[in-house]
């Protein structure tokens, strides 16, 4: 995957604004403050292409970033974002509409915090993706915050809670870069691209 140039294209707030379906797409989903922006920045080899915020709910649209061969789509975080319920409902409708209808969507990267037990919203999203035959890959972030033994123990608990196999997830750290190469290789496969 060629990441030599990556540009922000559009923040989509309505399905009518979606760009033309001319490139494979990878969407990134996760709870608010799970480290989604940091993961995307590390993956793309950029410091601050995707804005990192301590305030949950910062991403409010579907943010499209274009590399030469693929779109990366940053979805609004779900969970404890302190925004009105009507806005959360609008996000949900937008995200669901996008995930269900987008023909060029090749993979949804579901990001979970490795330090915490399985969260119901993550499990629901994974179950929904399975039910709708939408390809996904689970990434457990913040591995640098745990020791080697803790990493494996927590990953096993998350695998069991989300009913996924160890082969269906990657352990990642935006701080150290752990898992970046594995994630890139997996996304190349999903998108039918060579490294």
Quick overview of this protein structure:
This protein is of the alpha/beta class and 195 residues long. The protein has helices at 36-44, 85-101, 120-131, 148-162, 180-191, and strands at residues 7-12, 25-30, 62-66, 71-74, 105-113, 136-141, 169-171. The longest helix is centred in the middle third of the chain and has 17 residues, at 85-101.
- The count of DSSP E runs of length 2 or more, i.e. the number of strands, is 7
**Shape label:** globular
Level-2 CATH architecture: 3-Layer(aba) Sandwich
Q: Which structural class should the secondary elements be placed in?
A: alpha/beta
Q: Radius of gyration from the CA trace?
A: 16 Å
Q: Treating each run of at least 4 consecutive H or I residues as one helix, how many helices?
A: 5
CATH superfamily: P-loop containing nucleotide triphosphate hydrolases
Q: Give the distance, in angstroms, between the N- and C-terminal Cα atoms.
A: 5 Å
Largest sheet: 7 strands, mixed
Mean pLDDT over all positions: 89
């Amino acid at each position: 995957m060629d990441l030599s140039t990556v540009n922000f294209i559009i923040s989509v707030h309505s399905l009518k604004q979606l760009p033309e379906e001319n490139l494979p797409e990878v969407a990134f989903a996760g709870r608010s403050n799970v480290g989604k922006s940091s993961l995307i920045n590390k993956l793309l080899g950029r410091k601050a292409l995707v804005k990192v915020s301590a305030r949950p709910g910062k991403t409010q649209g579907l943010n499209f970033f274009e590399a030469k061969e693929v779109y990366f789509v940053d979805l609004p975080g779900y969970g404890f974002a302190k925004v009105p319920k009507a806005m959360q409902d609008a996000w949900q409708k937008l995200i669901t509409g996008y995930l269900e209808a987008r023909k060029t969507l090749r993979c949804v990267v579901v990001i979970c915090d490795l330090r915490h037990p399985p969260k119901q919203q993550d499990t629901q999203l994974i179950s929904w993706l399975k039910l709708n035959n939408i390809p996904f890959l689970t990434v457990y972030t913040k591995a640098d915050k745990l020791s080697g033994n803790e990493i494996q123990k927590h990953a096993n608990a998350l695998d069991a809670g989300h009913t996924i196999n160890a082969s269906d997830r990657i352990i990642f750290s935006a701080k150290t870069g752990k898992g970046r190469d594995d994630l890139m290789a997996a996304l190349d496969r999903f998108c039918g691209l060579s490294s």
